Amino acid sequence: MPMDINIQLSDDDLQYFVKGMHDVEESVKETPDEQIIAAAQELLDRTRGASVPPFIAERLGSVESLISLARDVGFGLPDADRRRVLAALAYLADPKDAIPDAVPVLGFLDDAIMIELCRQDLRFEIEAYDDFCEWRTDEARSRGIDPDKLMAQRADWADARAAEAITLMHRRRRDSYASGSWKPTLFRVG
User: CB pairs under 8 A, 24+ apart, for 37-42?
Assistant: First the structure.
């Protein structure tokens, strides 16, 4: 019979993990980024299909996108944010972290907490990256090329999104004139 267990971490509890993240970030400063990413990918590959609680499985499932975020030159993640992602990946790849990974059921609990802290800290960057990837795929398809071949940059995406916002604003204004619900008082529409 399954059992639900809820754990609430206090601010003091979270500080333990935040300090751990800073310690890891400092300890891997000289480690090549690709080495950290490869170690995290290797761990994911080894644990794929492992039976872990849903909280842990969900966080492990998001590691692929963190790896993509760290590797994606086109998106150009700022260095400080990139270091946070790499620290979370390095913590994940360390089999002797706070709770050793070999401990059944709970071995990845601390890793999942670290991943969640990283995700919360960078949630706006992650949302922007998801949108960037979607835009890049759509843009490549509209040009009839493979999305991996499109050399799109973050600035291209930002310009496209700004142009979309301006177009939407103009359409809303034009539609409000056409509906008759509002008539401009300062300007004459011809």
Answer: 37/67, 37/70, 37/71, 37/86, 37/89, 39/89, 39/90, 39/93, 40/67, 40/89, 40/90, 40/92, 40/93, 41/67, 42/93
Structure-token pair, residue 12: 């003091």
Six-digit token string for 152: 């799109």
pLDDT in tens, 120-163: 999 999 999 999 999 999 988 998 988 778 888 888 888 888 98
Distance in angstroms (rounded) separating the CA atoms of residues 183 and 49: 61
pTM, to two decimals: 0.78
Tokens 């995290």, located at residue: 40
Contact yes or no for 91/101 (Cβ under 8 A): no
Token reading at 172: 């809303």
Is the pLDDT at 15 greater than 80, yes or no?
yes
